[in-house]
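Ticket closed. Logging final result for MET7A protein.
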Amino acid sequence: MTEASILFLRACLALLAMPIYLLSFLGIWEPFCKKIFFPFFLEKICAIHERKAKKQKQELFRNLPDFTSPSGELRLLEIGTGNGANFQFYPPGCKVTCTDINPNFQQGLLRSMNKNQHVHYEQFLVAAGEDLRQVPSGSVDAVICTLVLCSVHSVNDTLKEVLRVLRPGGAFYFLEHVAADRSSWKYFWQQICYPTWKLVFAGCCLTREIWKNLEQANFSELSLQHTSIALPWTPIQPHIIGFAVK
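Final structure:
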């Protein structure tokens, strides 16, 4: 009965989103989403998410200076920088390399850079999380990734790249929305929304159990906490937050 209910409700949601499915079939939706809709949507949703998650992020990034290299520099690499929502939490004087697979965030990114001039911005790379070949191995002290692992093609390959670019003793910081408990109504609604949500929001997957990927990755230390961020009427309330040490 549950499986049948999920399929029925998925079909109902797909009917409501039929114009987007049609645009996708015609090859129009993806370029429109990448260039216009998703950068606009991400800036709006990030503003809401930031208000709800600000205290958690302040606590998360509090120990970033602990990973300063012996040379006295703190070199950060951010995967999926988007509009630069994390810049405000970075320590003064740190050097940041920004990466994103989508190069269409310039306006929001420039606004964040102008607001956060305590950070030294080294470069912006158009790169997927699974392919950071432009970043030398062992060259950064910390990697930051928030609300990105939901949409990469491979979480495991992204974590392999994280481990490669981190120096020994460096840290990977994460805040990601994840699958709800499988016995919960939240998970039931995540399953219903999954196909349409993934299409509309540039490949964002609702039911990834990313904590399992982190537990299985080759980190020497993992500090991970399950939490909930109050985003009413959305299927992305369950989150994981923490950091892992190479």
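The two ends are 45 Å apart (CA to CA). No further action required.
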